[in-house]
Specification:
The chain contains no helices and twelve strands. By secondary structure, it is mainly β. The chain has one domain (8-142): Jelly Rolls (Sandwich), CATH 2.60.120.
């Protein structure tokens, strides 16, 4: 996932596969993904348990909002969020039955007592079936 100038995709574990399965279409405007009917429906996904993506975004004393557009394909995805300032952690799971896709927009509001980094780990907690069960990263917007 390309950098928008502030946050960035740090790593991906496991195989990375381009997909065009998102029910939403995205278009970048000034580095910010915008849900648009004339945009792209592509994203990147990975298969298999414990594989996923890590993203970081700057945090400070002002409240920031990160919208993370994700997908789960025949798997259970887990999002773990951690502030490097040690002030907060959180997690959430998204479960999807075999041979189906679920997309979601997760809105994360955060701030830190000082300059810090928000770290997001979006990983496959469980993969179902014989195919490529895993998580997808479709877009992210930071304000």
């Amino acid at each position: 996932m390309p950098s928008t100038g502030e946050g960035r995709a740090r790593r991906s574990t496991g195989p990375r596969i381009r997909h065009a399965l998102s029910p939403q279409r995205f278009r970048r405007t000034g580095g910010t993904p915008v849900d648009r009917s004339d945009g792209t429906d592509t994203g990147v996904r990975t298969c298999g348990k414990n594989n996923g993506f890590t993203l970081t975004a700057p945090a400070g004393t002002s409240t920031r909002v990160l919208k993370l557009y994700i997908g789960v394909i025949s798997a259970k995805g887990r999002l773990d969020a951690t502030l490097s300032a040690g002030s907060a952690t959180g997690s959430s799971t998204v479960d999807q039955h075999p041979d189906t896709l679920k997309s979601a927009v997760l809105t994360i509001r955060f701030r830190a007592p000082r300059t810090a980094q928000l770290r997001l780990d979006w990983t496959t907690a469980e993969a179902y079936g014989q195919g490529c069960g895993g998580v997808a990263l479709e877009a992210a917007a930071l304000r």
